[in-house]
Amino acid sequence: MKRILLISTGGTIASVEGAEGLAPGMQADAILSYVPELRRGYDVSTLPLFSIDSSNMRPEHWLRIARAIQDNYDDYDGFVVMHGTDTMAYTAAALSYLCLYLAKPVVLTGAQQPIERTATDGTRNLIDSFAVAADPGSRGVMIVFNGHVIAGTRARKTRSKSYNAFSSIDFPDLAVVRGGRVVRYIATGDAPSVPIFSHALEGRIFPLKLVPGMSPHVFDELIDDFDAIILESFGVGGIPMYPDDSGDDAFARAIERWTQAGKIVVVTTQVPHEGSDMAIYQVGLHIRDRRGVIVAYDMTFESIYTKLMWILAQTRDPARVERLFHTPINHDLVDLG
Question: Is 12 one of the catalytic residues?
């Protein structure tokens, strides 16, 4: 019988109705009482790590989850983390970097309806998650939701209310779960020998979404308070070519001041699918070739943000940052242009 550690962190699946709306109020043991077949099919232990709405999730919570996995790694065959859906994709991405080379599965799941409600999707999601966590072909960090098994770096919440809440962005599902059976699409390969756990994240990163007419002076306002910017560009990587007072390229100069200061600029796209490629248009190429920016290609925003946090906790050297950023982890980077 497979040994599974069920870690509870709160979220909708654990929520109860109160005077001010839904809020987490149940721990893992209480939630398990709604799915008694899990106790019969697996050797289950529970770990109530914390109990929060996932809107309140912060990097220190990611570090606590990673530490809990590390501390219990040798004692269990798999891990199921119950989590709120709103920031689950960020947590799955963060754990993908904090917990490297796992030979065992870490499955994140939750629900769009509390477990105590008749219409809950939590029961199915837990049953499916345990099936994946116990499957011999599973390893690494993933989200299991509504029958989909999604790589931890590729998930995004794309529906706010529907049970089919998560999509795998620009990458196939790893597997599906049908009738409790895991049907695998992508083999996980040979199990690595020794996992590596990290215990630091650097959060001085600013996400900046371009809008038409935005002033490039915003870069100068941010430079003293942040070490990196994630620039959500137009299309495949378009950045405006507005002239400044001297007739020079204002955005290019603003970005150059950042990179010359040894700070990091990552360019992604605000388009939901198919990633960025700054080599196609003049409005991208004029920045890519001369300003020392890092192109995110087909990475999700959740992965860009958490991977940068993980990298900047290790190094501030721009060349090493770019090398680590462009090293694929858990399927986070497939198309390098």
Answer: yes
